[in-house]
Amino acid sequence: MSLITTKEMFEKAYKGGYAVGAFNINNMEIIQAITEAAAENRSPVILQVSAGARKYAKHEYLVALAQAAIKDTGIDFALHLDHGEDFEICKSCIDGGFTSVMIDGSKYPLKENIELTRKVVEYAHARGVTVEGELGKLAGIEDDIHVGADDAMFTDPAEVEEFVAKTGVDSLAIAIGTSHGAFKFKDEPLLRFDILEKIEKLLPGFPIVLHGASSVMPDLVDEINAYGGNMSGAKGVPEEMLRRAASMAVCKINIDSDIRLAFTAGVRRVFAKEPELFDPRGYLKVAREEVKKMVSHKIVNVLGSDGKA
Fold first, then answer.
1. Which of 14, 21, 171, 280 has the fewest CB atoms below 10 angstroms from its CB?
2. In which band, very low, low, confident or very high, does the pLDDT at 179 lie, cut at 50, 70 and 90?
3. Segments making up each domain of the chain, as ranges
């Protein structure tokens, strides 16, 4: 058992009509919850690390915890850098044991995005690491990434063939209406499946990625609010839309906000019902179970990846 790349994962997912969940990790309890859910459901998963997570938990701790999870569960996982902003952070993760990296050059014009992405691909492929690129801009907030609604931009299908051919990326993140954070939509959720269908035809068999794809599960939001939280108006991507995307060319779906919501709901419930509790193990254990339950739900009912490990 070992850390693996996403290549074979995505090949199987594309052919099987399901998606692999890329779950963001920040601490031991979250890693345990994700990997235990994966093991119990015999599902492939990607442990995903943002720049913020590396600052918070430190690179070495996260790699060691991921390797410990493999030994504990007997399941192979990919360890992926989410939203690498430049060549240096991608290089650091590649050299430091990650098996997959994302270089996000979407803020640059197409030519510069291609040049930056190709540079990362050349370095990564020489070391057996897979690379995800991005075309289009998602709105929302995630760690240090802030993109206003006016700056968001759908992926232009006319650019995807050139981008993939000239960069050599292994997967492509696209913008079809998802967004980062827990407040994704002011009005009714809408995903541009017409864009996805066009890209699917232009890049047959090529794995597509959806960022900002948490559903901001209403029951978790309600529980947080019931125990003193204030998340009025939080709204995410309906799960039926994500399942439809997973049955198409989307092979990787990123989930972060739903993890945070599940964790926070568990902690708030314990603090409200057991105000005398001060042992962190007491409330972190509950938070871990809530995340595990949520991840299992996603694997079975949204991603369709159960039994595919």
1. 280
2. low
3. 7-303
Structural contact between residues 106 and 135, judged by C-beta atoms closer than 8 angstroms:
yes
Name the DSSP letter for residue 127. Answer: T
Q: Are 295 and 77 in contact (CB under 8 A)?
A: no
Catalytic site includes residue 82: yes
Beta bridge partners of 133: 172
Give the pLDDT confidence of 26-57 residue by residue, as tens digits. 999 999 999 999 999 999 999 999 999 999 99
- Cα separation, 223 vs 269, whole angstroms: 8
3-state SS assignment for residue 256: coil
C-alpha distances in angstroms, 138 versus 13, 83, 104, 228, 301?
A: 24, 12, 11, 30, 25
**3-class DSSP state of 271:** helix
Helix H, strand E, coil C: the string for 182-236 is CECCCCCCCCCHHHHHHHHHHCCCCCEEECCCCCCCHHHHHHHHHCCCCCCCCEC
Query: Is the pTM value of this prediction over 0.90?
Result: yes
Residues 69/44, Cβ–Cβ less than 8 Å:
no
Active-site residue, selected from the candidate residues 72, 76, 82, 306 = 82
Strands 139-142 and 208-210: unpaired
Q: What share of the chain is helix, strand, coil (3-state, %, to 5)?
A: 50, 20, 35
**Contact residues for 101 (Cβ-Cβ < 8 A; gap 6+):** 80, 81, 84, 90, 93, 94, 120, 124, 129, 130, 131, 132
Residue with tokens 């995630």: 142
* CB of 101 closer than 8 Å to CB of 169: no
For the stretch 192-250, pLDDT in tens is 999 999 999 999 999 999 998 889 999 999 999 999 999 988 888 999 999 999 999 99
